[in-house]
Amino acid sequence: MLLEVRDLHVEFHTRDGVARAVNGVSYGVDAGETLAVLGESGSGKSVTAQAIMGILDMPPGRITGGEVLFQGRDLLKLKEEEERRRVRGAEMAMIFQDALSSLNPVISVGDQLGEMFVVHRGMSRKDARTKAVELMDRVRIPAARERVKQYPHQFSGGMRQRIMIAMALALEPALIIADEPTTALDVTVQAQVMDLLAELQREYHMGLILITHDLGVVADVADRIAVMYAGRIVESAPVHDIYKAPAHPYTRGLLDSIPRLDQKGQQLYAIKGLPPNLMHIPPGCAFHPRCPLARDVCRTDEPPLYEVSGARGSACHFWRECLDG
């Protein structure tokens, strides 16, 4: 397996107490596979990705347990920051959700793209600029040779996100983590960005972890889905199984929240209540205060990730009832 996360735990120490942001997350992704990690804001998706990449702010964050095995190496045991830098960019890369704040506003996009080749490949600035143009062409930015000298504010939101994709692809890493890559983009541009990511992933045979809160975005690109809630994986399954019959009430709620063309004029469904306070996660199943299937056992006993089938798991005591709809 290209990447395997095992029982990862991350905490944030604040003035008000300890927030348990990630609570025993385990998942994996193979070369050429796309894993979509889904959940509401605060579910732990991005914190898990930051821990994998080694860019978690510590303090206040703290990794308190688990392993992150990348090509057999435990990244959490790399002692020197220089070792982590050699992995970041060259072997694994991340696409951030806010392209405008992720790009330096006072450096041209060509220089920002070229910096990867200067630092990691020892290229001259001239050769690095040539590679930057090639990358911009690759992600379909028109007139790349002229625009390579421009600055981030001179590009639209969709084009800035393409630059971020180009930056992640620069050194042809084995794994890319895309954190909400279509946030703040209109629907048409979202589709273009997702199609581009899927095409490049197939071409380079990379592993791709796609972090999102939107089940509609991943339907055509993901192979597997991991659904997170309160820092845990509550359902993991092949993408078609999730859409056909979710095995967790939270997953069903996310699916029911997607607007549909055949529901014109009807009120949109919304999951009742709010996500839990990570400093005071409810006992038992963290979803029970919002769950329509909740019973006494849900309020006292935390469900394990039950095996629904060989490739599928659900952290719900009543997953069979959920499957039956």
Could you explain the architecture of this structure?
This protein is of the alpha/beta class and 325 residues long. 34% of the residues lie in helices and 24% in strands. It contains 13 helices and twelve strands. It has helices at residues 45-53, 81-87, 99-102, 109-121, 125-138, 144-147, 157-169, 187-204, 215-218, 239-244, 249-256, 296-300, 319-323; strands at 3-14, 17-29, 34-38, 61-70, 73-74, 92-95, 175-179, 207-212, 224-229, 232-238, 306-309, 312-314. It has an eight-stranded mixed sheet, with helices on both faces. α5 packs across α7 (157-169) and α7 (157-169) packs parallel to α8. The longest helix is centred in the middle third of the chain and has 18 residues, at 187-204. The radius of gyration is 21 Å and the shape is globular. It starts with a strand and ends with a helix. The mean pLDDT is 90.
Structure described in brief:
The protein is 34% helix and 24% strand. By secondary structure, it is an alpha/beta fold.
Q: What is the element string, with H for helices and E for strands?
A: EEEHEEHEHHHHHEHEHEEHHHEEH
Taken from the alpha-carbon principal axes, the silhouette is globular
Sheet with most strands: strand arrangement: 6-7-8-3-9-10-12-11
What low-confidence regions span 5 or more consecutive residues with pLDDT below 50? none
Tell me the number of strands: 12
